[in-house]
Design brief:
Blueprint (H helix, E strand, L loop, with lengths): L1 H28 L4 H10 L7 H11 L6 H13 L13 H36 L4 H15 L2 H15 L18 H11 L1 H27 L2 H8 L4 H23 L1 H6 L2 H6 L5 H10 L3 H29 L7
Helix pairs in contact: 1-15, 2-3, 5-6, 5-9, 6-9, 7-9, 9-11, 11-15
Length: 328
């Protein structure tokens, strides 16, 4: 196992090198450029240099006057030393801006993901055990509703009910207007209160797919020969389901869980925008639209690292949930 992990890590480094090169090439090729906008603004100032002179100077500062390969290796050298540059639109170091907003999105996505697992997997198993019953049809309808309707629709409905009609929750924002006057514990509760509707929105639109996936895999496992053998030996139904069937159902679910690691840090652009949450989703989108190459490069490479790490974790978990898997 140790040799396998070392080999996979070396392969991940090689893949990450080419992925970052591709990302840098794409970022250098997009038409939007914040540097051009700054050059235009400074050229309009009284007694300022011309637009072309400002553009040449700014391109030299940010290494945009070099070729893509030369510019990439310059960026890579700085990145290996932990220097990812300053954000062009936020005027602070990239890592500083990233650390300011990432934990808002991580808290939101993590809470929604945990609730999704706690709700979707048990309901999928129940639906499979009671196939073609009212329970199964109810779970199927709930899953289809969650899959079919868009995020902004659920968010609007939740706002209408809990904010407009009942007045229990605020429409927007992460904290209330009197947040600074609260005690530390009250501040935590105030922020948690503002996260209720965003988390509910993410859970509603996400549980459908995992619920259906769990149901399908559980049905396949329940029809296997070894399940019939276990029942013929006189094992209780709870042991057949919880020990034999559920353990094998986890094998394909591990793939989904491993693939969700990047999503915990990538933010949820639509949900964050609808509820006024200054998370990494909205921040990275604004940076991308403005052509902020330093911030966009760091964020995209960060997601690439999480994707590779999530895949590695999923492969290792296969051996945990399935003793038949042996990593050579």
């Amino acid at each position: 196992m140790r040799k396998y992990i070392v080999k996979r890590l070396l392969l991940c480094i090689l893949i990450l090198f080419f992925v970052s090169l591709i990302i840098y090439s794409i970022m250098r090729s997009i038409p939007t450029s914040y540097v051009e906008s700054i050059a235009r603004q400074r050229a309009t100032l009284p007694g300022s240099k011309s637009y072309s002179e400002w553009l040449a100077q700014l391109n030299a500062v940010y290494r945009l006057d070099r070729g893509i390969i030369e510019g990439y290796f310059g960026w890579l050298g700085d990145a290996l030393r932990g220097n990812f540059g300053d954000s062009w639109i936020y005027n602070v170091p990239v890592t500083e801006k990233f650390s300011q907003v990432i934990w808002y999105s991580f808290a939101l996505s993590s809470a929604a993901f945990i609730l999704e697992l706690l709700i979707a997997i048990p309901l999928g198993i129940i639906a499979a055990r009671k196939q073609y019953s009212r329970t199964d049809y109810t779970v199927t309808v709930i899953a289809l509703i969650g899959i079919s309707l868009p995020t902004f629709f659920f968010a609007t409905i939740l706002k209408l009910i809990f904010s407009v009609k009942l007045g229990w929750l605020d429409l927007y924002g992460m904290v209330g207007r009197f947040y600074d006057q609260l005690t530390p514990w009250q501040q935590v509760l105030d922020m948690a209160k503002h996260y209720i509707m965003p988390i509910m929105t993410l859970v509603i639109v996400s549980i459908g797919g995992l619920m259906r996936y769990t149901r399908t895999n559980m049905l396949e496992v329940l029809n296997a020969d070894y399940i019939r053998t276990a029942r013929a030996k006189g094992l209780s139904e709870s042991r057949v389901i919880n020990y034999h069937a559920f353990r094998n159902t986890l094998i394909p679910i591990v793939t989904i869980v491993g693939g969700t690691l990047p999503s915990l840090f990538s933010g949820t652009l639509i949900t964050e925008t609808l509820f006024g949450i200054s998370g990494i989703g909205k921040t990275s989108f604004d940076a991308m639209v403005a052509g902020d190459i330093p911030f966009s490069m760091f964020f995209m490479v960060f997601l690439a690292v999480l994707t590779l790490l999530g895949t590695l974790i999923a492969d290792i978990l296969y051996a945990v949930v399935d003793p038949r898997v042996r990593v050579a």
